[in-house]
Amino acid sequence: MAKSDVKVIGAWPSPFVMRARISLNIKSVDYEFLQEQLGAKSELLLKSNPVHKKIPVLIHGNKPICESLVIVQYIDEVWTSGPSILPSDPYDRAIARFWAAYIDDKWFPSLSSTKSKEGEARKAALEQVAEGLALLEDAFVKCSKGKDFFGGSRIGFLDIALGCFLAWLSVTEKINGVKLLDETKTPNLAKWAVKFRDDDSVKSVMPETDKLAEFAKVMAAKSRGTPPPK
Fold first, then answer.
1. Where would you tag: which of 46, 93, 150, 164 has the fewest CB atoms within 10 A of its CB?
2. CB 151 within 8 A of CB 85
3. What is the pLDDT of residues 33-55, one digit of tens each?
4. Backbone angles phi and psi of 80, in degrees to 5
5. At what angle do helices 119-144 and 187-198 cross, to 10 degrees?
6. What contacts 102, CB < 8 A, 6 or more positions away?
7. What is the distance between the alpha carbons of residues 117 and 74, in angstroms, rounded to a whole number?
8. What is the pTM of this model?
């Protein structure tokens, strides 16, 4: 398929955009990455996602598909010649979707909230993040069945759902001077994170921690209405 037939509207810092890009990489699908300017919404984005007006959007043959996990599942169903992303077993597939929903609805909001909280409130949010990782450690042991990834011997749906947040997790650790993905408390997740980052489908789209941390500082300064740090 021609590269121009597949486009991703997104922005490099977005973990949700990473989900679409990793999935396309797994399937060896060439695509055009249309970088949105942060703080502005392009006409194409508004036209392609008039309901939520947000990234990512996958455009396939001029048809837009929205919402990151919906996009991942669409890619898996359309490009069947590549490695499967969702588990083949219905129960395993349901469990993967359950934990993906937990990550988006419970865990990531706790991680994201640490940016806007101070003092004890931030400490409590960081504890929630750590508690969530402990739950995901147990989920990894059950889902991986002794292999390297949630999806088994290679990256799958749940790996993508959680792995896309690893760079932001590292930034949160750096800003707060804490270790959340702890080798002693979550040893399996810690090993998994290294293998996930090193995968060929991930390397090219995973932001560097320092670059993402600088971006976070700029965005925080903008939200406060103060000049960005130099």
1. 46
2. yes
3. 999 987 889 999 999 999 999 99
4. -80, -10
5. 80
6. 132, 135
7. 36
8. 0.94
